[in-house]
């Protein structure tokens, strides 16, 4: 998809990196191996509050692994991750503290099939946050309205389109009042006509000031929404730059080749 197709207007006037402010995510010298395979190599990354960072790169370059390390869905062997002042360790209490602040949306929606849309959104606030049924239901409806599918509340996931399911997944994450949202290729499993409705939801979230880390190859979204675009290959961050430079004057040959393939 080109910029023109996406219809998003680039907005380069606003820098959301709050200078002098403590980053909400700090990743230092992160290394991860799967057995002998070195999946993440010396990753250094800081994300400021309200910043929107897009991560792209070829399949197998470590994008999902990086995102998953941030909320401890994958463990790492070396380096540090600090989220909003909490250092990620293997201590369960610490993992819970970080997960409480980080919402995650996956390629495959991952909704509970045996629960209705509303129940999907109410479950974690009740179980994890101890919210009452009434309160959880009220919050769930608020976010289902926000993603523009309140009328689907009593349906089961299988009765919804892929785009609607993904918007439920976003609403479900938002019900936990996360400070940070992680997206891992949220539109890759969708039919083309549903991509836009999910991207619109993500753009609205960005406009509200949500701190976002998005793995996506939707370059129209990256160009118009991202403060920075990161390019990974073979477990390394090789480019980390504002979108204008990323797209208009990429000086890394591997990035040029990648952009040539997807644009
Ligand atoms: P991306 O999201 O960029 O496509 P991933 O982070 O999923 O890449 O994977 C990075 C590399 O790590 C790939 O080579 C993949 O095969 C490998 N990998 C991912 N998960 C596992 C796993 N659970 N066990 C072994 N290797 C894995
Ligand atoms: Mg992936």
From TrEMBL:
A Pfam family (short name) is ABC_tran
Any GO MF annotation of the entry: ABC-type amino acid transporter activity
Q: Which PANTHER family match?
A: AMINO ACID IMPORT ATP-BINDING PROTEIN, PHOSPHONATES IMPORT ATP-BINDING PROTEIN PHNC
Q: What does the UniProt keyword field contain?
A: ATP-binding, Nucleotide-binding, Transport
Give the protein name, as stated in the record.
Amino acid ABC transporter ATP-binding protein
- Gene3D superfamilies assigned to the protein according to its UniProt record, in alphabetical order: P-loop containing nucleotide triphosphate hydrolases
Specify whether Cell membrane is a keyword of the entry: no
Give the UniProt family note.
Answer: Belongs to the ABC transporter superfamily.
Query: SMART domains annotated for this entry?
Result: AAA (SM00382)
* Domain of life of the native organism: Bacteria
> Known InterPro entries for this protein?
AAA+_ATPase (IPR003593), ABC_ATPase_HisP-typ (IPR030679), ABC_transporter-like_ATP-bd (IPR003439), ABC_transporter-like_CS (IPR017871), MetN_ABC_transporter-like (IPR050086), P-loop_NTPase (IPR027417)
Residue span, ABC transporter domain: 25-259
């Amino acid at each position: 998809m080109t910029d023109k197709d996406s219809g998003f207007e680039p907005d380069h006037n606003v820098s959301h990196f709050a200078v002098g402010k403590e980053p909400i995510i700090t990743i230092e010298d992160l290394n991860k191996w799967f057995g002998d395979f070195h999946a993440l190599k010396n990753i250094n990354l800081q994300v400021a509050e309200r910043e929107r960072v897009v991560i792209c790169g070829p399949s197998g370059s470590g994008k999902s692994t990086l995102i998953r390390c941030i909320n401890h869905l994958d463990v790492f062997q070396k380096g540090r991750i600090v989220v909003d002042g909490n250092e990620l360790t293997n201590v369960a209490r610490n993992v819970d503290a970080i997960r409480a602040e980080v919402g995650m949306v996956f390629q495959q929606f991952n909704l509970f099939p045996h629960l209705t849309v509303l129940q999907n959104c109410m479950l974690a606030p009740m179980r994890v946050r101890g919210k009452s049924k009434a309160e959880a239901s009220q919050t769930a409806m608020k976010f289902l309205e926000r993603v523009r599918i309140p009328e689907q509340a009593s349906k089961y996931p299988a009765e919804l389109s892929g785009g609607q399911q993904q918007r439920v997944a976003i609403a479900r994450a938002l019900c936990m009042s996360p400070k940070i949202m992680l997206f891992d290729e949220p539109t890759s499993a969708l039919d083309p006509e549903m991509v836009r409705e999910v991207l619109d939801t993500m753009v609205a979230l960005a406009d509200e000031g949500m701190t976002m880390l998005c793995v996506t190859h939707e370059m129209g979204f990256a160009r118009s929404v991202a403060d920075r675009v990161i390019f990974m290959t073979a477990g390394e961050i090789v480019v980390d730059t504002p979108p204008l430079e990323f797209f208009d004057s990429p000086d890394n040959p591997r990035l040029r080749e990648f952009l040539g393939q997807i644009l």
